[in-house]
Amino acid sequence: MLKHADIVFQALNVISKRAELKSGHYLSAFASLLFNFSVTFIEKYVENEEVLNEFADLLKIRLDLDKDTDNRTLLLQSGANILSKYHKSVG
């Protein structure tokens, strides 16, 4: 899952911009997929920070597009999962 995450995120970014993909099933599946990736990022260390940046960009796009409360909760938890492991200490 992580080996080709950059390719997956680039494809998901393009898919996210397609206007016709706004059904509830699609939005739920998208949010769940990103959540599953975030759990994988916790379990396995990601050395390539660019993948994490692509993931963060994708989360931002999805949060702007998806207004469903359950989906937004999954997306926000996905971001929290990443921050809990990969945040850089300040100071």
Q: What can you see in these coordinates?
A:
The chain has 91 residues and is an all-alpha fold. The chain has a domain at 23-82. The protein contains 4 helices and no strands. The protein has helices spanning 5-16, 24-43, 49-65, 69-86. The protein starts with a helix and ends in a 5-residue tail after the last helix.
Question: What's the short story on this structure?
Answer:
With 91 residues, the chain is mainly α. It has four helices and no strands. The longest helix has 20 residues, at 24-43.
Quickly list its features.
single chain, 91 residues, mainly alpha
Question: What's the layout of helices and strands?
Answer:
Elements: H1 5-16, H2 24-43, H3 49-65, H4 69-86
Largest β-sheet summary: none
- As a percent range, the share of helical residues equals over 70%
Q: Ends: how far apart?
A: 34 Å
Low-confidence segments: none
Rg from alpha-carbon coordinates: 13 Å
- Helix-strand category: mainly alpha
> What is the number of helical segments per DSSP (H or I, 4+ residues)?
4
Give the helices and strands as they follow along the chain. HHHH
Taken as a percent bin, the fraction of beta residues is under 5%
How many DSSP E strands?
A: 0
Average residue pLDDT:
86
The outline comes out as globular
